[in-house]
Design a protein that fits this description.
This protein is of the alpha+beta class. It is 26% helix and 33% strand. Strand 3 (14-15) and strand 4 form a beta hairpin. The termini are far apart.
Length: 378
């Protein structure tokens, strides 16, 4: 019989307002098999492909219990209490001797997604772990697994780090986002650092803004290697192409947890990636630091000014920023012009603040815009 700190795990059943977390039964195999025929279930889970009825039978018979028999984990079927329907799976992997952290995993089946079941199950399992002396419970998910990221935040887990090449996904490995709760943390849901952009993005008919996405790394790499871009960089070292892949893959994660909101500037006529504009959240609350860059083929069209004019109303009226700031090296006339054309106001000069590739330093010319609701009160 498997025990953890005096509690027998084989028959352990937990419950919440809507769910029963119970051991797997042979009769659950049909629900598991049906769910795993949905291709969406394979994107972030290292599953057999094709997923057969034999795979489902082995899961409910053996793998799904996640160490109940050995006292090392609690795997459970998530059962909707009112209907008896199996809506997913969850697992609490308990700390080994001389370890302090447990880890949670979960999957909600396609016909039950969007109901908050994963967050509800995560709260139940975390509460049980804390009640039995576990001091930390973590969740790891691929950086692109936005549903799991949102679940972690909804269940009160705080974002801690990105680990490179840490989790298996369809087709290989991916960076992971790590979230955790300590026994003494409150269990309140954690709000995203910024509201999402409209589904259609922000547009003016010439350019549009949307979150940076996987696939945009090709444009990022082109920008990084462009001689004019290199002129205004801080060092002469090119970024590794993998850095651009990682940046694009994690952009939606960072939109939820910070510290940078990255938008692609898209050419409306072709749908092509034309550049990037970002809002950094470092520093005082509700203050955004803006950065931008445009691919060589789209320069000279005023795209940066357009992107700034699209971003500002959203940042002030929807995201609640009080002030937006940006700066550029004193000789970067194009960047300074873009700020002026977008209505940003001169905000001083910081002497010898921005490093040049040759190791010297340039003055930074600063621009800013203050949200009118705060300007009138000052």
């Amino acid at each position: 019989m498997g025990e953890f700190r005096g509690v027998e795990l084989n028959d352990l059943v937990l419950s919440s307002a809507r769910l029963t977390l119970r051991p797997w039964q042979d009769s659950d195999a049909d629900a598991v098999f049906t769910a795993m025929q949905d291709r969406g279930m394979h994107e972030f889970l290292p599953l057999p492909d094709p997923y057969t009825r034999q795979d489902a039978a082995e899961f409910v018979d053996e793998f799904g219990d996640e160490g109940r028999g050995s006292g090392t984990g609690v795997g459970a079927a998530l059962v909707e209490s009112g209907t008896g329907r199996v809506v997913g799976s969850a697992a609490l992997r308990l700390p080994k001797p001389r370890q302090v952290s447990a880890e949670l995993g979960y999957a909600v089946y396609p016909d039950a997604q969007g109901n908050g079941f994963a967050a509800e199950a995560s709260r139940v399992l975390a509460a049980w772990a804390f009640a039995h002396g576990v001091s930390r419970v973590a969740i790891r998910c691929a950086v692109g697994n936005l549903a799991s990221v949102k679940t972690s935040l909804n269940a009160g887990f705080r974002f801690e780090a990105v680990l490179r090449g840490d989790v298996s996904v369809a087709g290989g490995v991916a960076d992971s986002a790590v979230f955790a709760r300590l026994a003494g943390d409150d269990a309140e849901s954690i709000e995203p650092v910024a509201p999402e952009l409209p589904t259609s993005g922000l547009g003016d008919g010439v350019v549009s803004l949307r979150p940076l996405l996987p696939g945009d790394e090709h444009g990022l790499l082109e920008q990084d290697q462009d001689p004019l871009t290199r002129q205004w960089e801080f060092t002469d070292k090119l970024r590794d192409p993998d850095e651009h892949i990682r940046l694009a893959a994690a952009a939606r994660l960072h939109w939820l947890v910070g510290p940078v909101l990255r938008c692609a500037i898209v050419d409306a006529a072709t749908g092509s990636y034309a550049g990037m504009i970002s809002v950094r959240l470092h520093g005082p609350p509700n203050i955004g630091g803006i950065g931008y860059g445009v691919r060589p083929a789209f320069r000279g069209r005023g795209y940066t000014s357009r992107a700034l004019r699209l971003l500002v109303p959203w940042a002030f009226d929807v995201a609640g920023f009080a002030r937006l700031e940006l700066g550029a090296k004193q000789d970067n006339a194009a960047s300074l012009r873009a700020a002026q054309h977008a209505g940003f106001e001169a905000d001083g000069v910081r002497r010898a603040r921005l490093r040049n590739p040759d190791g010297t330093f340039s003055d930074e010319v600063r621009y800013a815009l203050v949200n009118p609701r705060y300007r009138s009160a000052s």
